[in-house]
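Sample pair:
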Amino acid sequence: MTDAADIIGTDLLWNIDENGVAWLTLNRPDAANAITPDQRNCTIELMQAASSDLNVRVVVITAAGERHFCTGADLRVSTIPVNPGPDDAPTKVLGDVGRNIKRGAQRLISSIMDCEKPVICAVNGTAAGIGAHIAFASDLVIAADNAKFIEVFVRRGITPDGGGAYMLPRIVGLQKAKELIFFGDDVRADDALRLGLVNKVVPGAELHAAAAEWAGRLAESPTKALMLSKWLLNRSLDSERHGAFEDEAWAQEMASYTQDFQEGVAAFKERRDVQYRGW
């Protein structure tokens, strides 16, 4: 497998600016930013590392070019490892594909949902398959007005992977999720906004600035409070009221011991601007 150092700076761009905003850019515009296994695995590592990196306050995921955000997994290089076995064993047996999905697409989506920093997705064009799911897994989504989202799986004779059948009903409702997955129709940016798949639609030329503006606001916010809020909101989709209320109490308890909480209270009492540090 290609070393992560060979991926960052070529197929993936990773930059942390002076505000603590980490920009992760898919950088294969000539291949419609279809994601390779090496890109996928490197992205997982970067998202996991961002959680503990105090230099990072927020992550923005975007892509190079103006036409494609990510058109899914690059099928030209996406392969299922061959398992050892007898000489007459088939090259693919029951369990191989599912195992590959768990180790690949599902880990990628989980790394975004579980990142302890807020994640903004700036969608600059077509987001299909796992590309759409990268956006749906993010905490906030800003789309260029030429963006479109496509559930391509059934159109290819397969079922959704990368958490699509889990996330979509929670965003748009069960019946609409079935429509999107069964037909695989293009969902244009304005319709995606109406359905709640994205938070904002802007002209393509303004996408970077819009993402930077939101990222800047989040970078100045109390990072641990955002982390705990993200944890609460994500858990709420699968919890009952008593468990959710218990989670809420513990999250407030944990937040109250952060230095940012102490700064927030002090700034309020002293009637001055707050200066959150992220811990």
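The domain at 4-219 is CATH 3.90.226.10 (2-enoyl-CoA Hydratase; Chain A, domain 1).
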